[in-house]
Amino acid sequence: xxxxxxxxxxxxxxxxxxxxxxxxxxxxxxxxxxxxxxxxxxxxxxxxxxxxxxxxxxxxxxxxxxxxxxxxxxxxxxxxxxxxxxxxxxxxxxxxxxxxxxxxxxxxxxxxxxxxxxxxxxxxxxxxxxxxxxxxxxxxxxxxxxxxxxxxxxxxxxxxxxxxxxxxxxxxxxxxxxxxxxxxxxxxxxxxxxxxxxxxxxxxxxxxxxxxxxxxxxxxxxxxxxxxxxxxxxxxxxxxxxxxxxxxxxxxxxxxxxxxxxxxxxxxxxxxxxxxxxxxxxxxxxxxxxxxxxxxxxxxxxxxxxxxxxxxxxxxxxxxxxxxxxxxxxxxxxxxxxxxxxxxxxxxxxxxxxxxxxxxxxxxxxxxxxxxxxxxxxxxxxxxxxxxxxxxxxxxxxxxxxxxxxxxxxxxxxxxxxxxxxxxxxxxxxxxxxxxxxxxxxxxxxxxxxxxxxxxxxxxxxxxxxxxxxxxxxxxxxxxxxxxxxxxxxxxxxxxxxxxxxxxxxxxxxxxxxxxxxxxxxxxxxxxxxxxxxxxxxxxxxxxxxxxxxxxxxxxxxxxxxxxxxxxxxxxxxxxxxxxxxxxxxxxxxxxxxxxxxxxxxxxxxxxxxxxxxxxxxxxxxxxxxxxxxxxxxxxxxxxxxxxxxxxxxxxxxxxxxxxxxxxxxxxxxxxxxxxxxxxxxxxxxxxxxxxxxxxxxxxxxxxxxxxxxxxxxxxxxxxxxxxxxxxxxxxxxxxxxxxxxxxxxxxxxxxxxxxxxxxxxxxxxxxxxxxxxxxxxxxxxxxxxxxxxxxxxxxxxxxxxxxxxxxxxxxxxxxxxxxxxxxxxxxxxxxxxxxxxxxxxxxxxxxxxxxxxxxxxxxxxxxxxxxxxxxxxxxxxxxxxxxxxxxxxxxxxxxxxxxxxxxxxxxxxxxxxxxxxxxxxxxxxxxxxxxxxxxxxxxxxxxxxxxxxxxxxxxxxxxxxxxxxxxxxxxxxxxxxxxxxxxxxxxxxxxxxxxxxxxxxxxxxxxxxxxxxxxxxxxxxxxxxxxxxxxxxxxxxxxxxxxxxxxxxxxxxxxxxxxxxxxxxxxxxxxxxxxxxxxxxxxxxxxxxxxxxxxxxxxxxxxxxxxxxxxxxxxxxxxxxxxxxxxxxxxxxxxxxxxxxxxxxxxxxxxxxxxxxxxxxxxxxxxxxxxxxxxxxxxxxxxxxxxxxxxxxxxxxxxxxxxxxxxxxxxxxxxxxxxxxxxxxxxxxxxxxxxxxxxxxxxxxxxxxxxxxxxxxxxxxxxxxxxxxxxxxxxxxxxxxxxxxxxxxxxxxxxxxxxxxxxxxxxxxxxxxxxxxxxxxxxxxxxxxxxxxxxxxxxxxxxxxxxxxxxxxxxxxxxxxxxxxxxxxxxxxxxxxxxxxxxxxxxxxxxxxxxxxxxxxxxxxxxxxxxxxxxxxxxxxxxxxxxxxxxxxxxxxxxxxxxxxxxxxxxxxxxxxxxxxxxxxxxxxxxxxxxxxxxxxxxxxxxxxxxxxxxxxxxxxxxxxxxxxxxxxxxxxxxxxxxxxxxxx
Length: 1530
Prior knowledge:
The chain has 1530 residues and is of the alpha/beta class. α28 (937-953) crosses α29. It is elongated and about 130 Å long.
């Protein structure tokens, strides 16, 4: 086989073993697709050159040149095969067959690599078909692929009974798998693909920028010791040829115009063409002169405002002309110059939202432009306001529009003659330029510079009088203006202007005009050459033999060489001479920098260089002599301009001269450059007044140089080579990459089928201290998602292989949606802005942060364990006390006899029914604010008796049996609870199922009934029918319900005797709830704990019979249940009950009730507070008109088992401040499963003014203070306003980065990475709290983060579970410290927090200890060896975009999954992927693995407003979320 390919037998030639081995390896590479056929043959020929005479003609040193010429021939061949031209294609200046071959060879290596494709919802209603599901993966869990991760740093708390509650929208059968995670789901198999992708080796990470530790030390990035370094000598300043002395050279451009306009009035100056290619008008020099005079006279003398001239010399005037009207533009330009006005040519604004239009407006404002010149046709086409005037565009100043058509111009007075002065340093015109970031600046060019530039161009291009020039470029700026409007007039040339609209219709038009007008010079871009190649088959009779100079204006583009070569190959047979092609380099600041001389001027021969792209990325020039795929072929842009001095300086910092083999920024010192950025002195000095210095710091000249923004070097024969531009430069990980190079690589990956060739944008965004490459392309409408995704993945692989850099984000947008530049192409800065703002609306997106982000902080290393004893000693040495705090001592506050008397709640209710039978205990309000039901002491007692009789007689229950109470929030629930206590049964309150959502809510009811071993269900008649309905049978097995009794119609029988427990430690009730981690847990509450809980709340909140409190909480578990059902009976106060469900129909019901009943203390949940904040945000005025007044509220407590939501509470306070709500009123509580009430913030008015013994000495259930307050309510109000016993809740700011390391570091407000934490209320009487280490269980010091442990008489006594896990009970409810006080029994809350002693004092004069809750230990995410709290990541994500309504995060196999609710159009869904990834990287140094975009309401939230993240995780992995889009980040 090898012999056949070589063309001769190898057997006769003795080859050394190493050569034969190399040949065998080559064969293997070819067979596996690792090398192309062409590459194989070249390498093989190189190996055999010394041994086979037939191949000795191949000189290895010529390989590079052969490669270049080969590319030209191949390109030409490709062009001949092209039959049709796409209407939407732009230029193919990026095309290179050498490059295409390299890309295809690189892709062959990745042939087998598969990446998971994103999931996109076809319809909100129609689910994906079965065919789209990926095959099930194996039944083993995906591997842990996270490098550098340590084992969990904290002791994992054992979970409660592994029975997950069922979230809304989920099928219960899904959750029967291990941990509720089905391993054969579609989503998990895609994640498995992602994990397999990530397991592949990637480039080694860079030296980290910084160490994310307690001190956050920033590390300087160390350069790669093996990177190429420049080795040449320091370059010298390159001097151009001197400007030649020309006899009779005009002293200014206007003088030249005057000369030609008066001496050669009929000489043609400019010919304009229509869209069919016909010449519609030829402007002569006489007409140009006369019209310019008329315009100048009109502008200065006929435009007035308030009898004053509108304009004076030196004013700036906007020139707004379409590309199809060069004649009127030329008249306007020279008219302004004659009037000594400064023209500012800009593009025609077509709509109010044109790309970059706002920045143009900023330029016009800064230039003080008040007048815009235009044509009649253009003015009619501009958008109009209702008044008929041209609208004021966004960001633009108010302009007066003046039409310069002949009928509007006045004939100059006979005695009026403009002054045609010599060229001076005053501003002649301002040319706009858009920077990389999108800002627009105006570059001023003086009359002297304009004249010198015309002189230099005339000499460099060899222009002569009456020559004909064909101009395809935009005549308003850059080379189109310099050659087609200025230098042409200086030399009395005839310009044929080809409009952009004509080029789109007939790409060959410029060649036809060269042929028909026998033009000597043509000014084009490589785009125009490419377009003509696509259309050249239609025209065979064109000839380019008249051309002496084909000026390629974008010859500085590294990929223009392929267009030049291909164009030459095709048109050489039609008279085009090779030496005619003259690339040039220019910049807006320095004007023309270099130009290849036409042959008659005797310049050096053209040069080409094949450079190593890897070395270029380090700024080093190395000619590629090896057989590498990653090369860049560049052509020279000729010699520097006459009269100019040029040097190359380092891009960053001080402008030191570069070495000869080093790439830098080209700088020019010449009289023919721009002067300044108008109005921007700072950046003007940096760009226009640069002083290059030698390595020793010695200035190379006393004259300033102008930075061009071009990156390049000076090659042999003093030829200038340009390899890129600063505007397209992307510095990634210390290496420089050019945007055009990346575009070229993307185009080499078969783009024509899937994306539009000319509609690709590449730019960089800064994320996590480094540039990240983003590639955006327009997708063809007929391309399938699978094909597009395949193309995207191949582009990623090609860029990675060719450029050794990863693409951070690749997005495809629908056709014709990218912002366009005025003359075609993409408006890059506007595209970047839309990407950053989330307004790009892509239809496909692929993020690759795993590949690109190599500068993450080091993963946290686990330190050797520090023993608890050492920790205590360390705290003592540091002067820190042990973090321990306690509430007031209950024994000092209340009579022990009273406590014993109120030990059983059943006894308390019976006693109140006897002593104060008509005292109202409960008022239940409906959504209209009316009293739906109420209960006095005697009414509640009698109803409880009837329930007890029904339980004993109908239910035949025994003492200690468990009873499930399935009721809506109301008095019935309370009555049946006390009925159970009267009968000696153990009640369990259960939320009833939702009638419209039985499939998801009924299984939870069933689960609680079964787990609690309920022997009977008490409920209403309606709910009983629901539990036994056909709909219920579809969700659960209704035959297994225990006895169900309805309490709507019970017999009025008297109970023989109320059950009295034998011991206070007997079980009073069970409290079941589903935790935020999805665990259903029931805790046991004894009678002693129940009464202790009520007593503690009563003392903390000063509850007594004459007080009213309002409760807007669910009554089924935790503190909400205690406040709803227990406290009123114990303390005797009246509770106004507002079920949260009623807020859905009347969101103001709670606040209206508080105002109506003048409630001082009220309780709510975060979900209620959020509903009020969102629902009443715009209705405060209406509420005030209805008489709602919240000035009565002293304390509004939010009941929660989480970190205080400080943003929500502050928003609530600010919003309702207008209704009288005090800023101090809103506070938080904290409780958990082991103790439902640890902290409460409340007012203690009485203890300021009375001795403790007097305050809390009770007589017949009332304290003396209560009696006194009832008699003198006005004085009580004044006392309440004077102060509180406890200080206001304090807020501290902690460093979020330190929290990840389980440390607390206090910082100032507004500091970077600061996180506000609000105190979680005051510790209740009888409660002791200590902060313990999560692993060693030793006590921690003040302001140290650890687990909150609590000791209290009202701690729950244990978990109630069917599994009887004794170890779990001991670990959570009977924990002891490992050092210090080892005798006290503590309960572990499972929450991380810290104590901090403040400078404030409480009522007793002691310094106040504030408890701060940071988050649930079970919910924390262990990533990169650090501990993250989901709420912190979610807060960042919600801020990322206005359409993100809610967010939840969780992990799956060490991948971070972010679920985002989209509140907006579905076309915004894919915008969120990049924004979410960016913000999590920036603020948390984490890479998001999966981004899931869902509809609002998908994230499950419990009644307390807490997110059920584990339910969400189960639903995601079971593919039940019906997501809009799922993005798998690579």
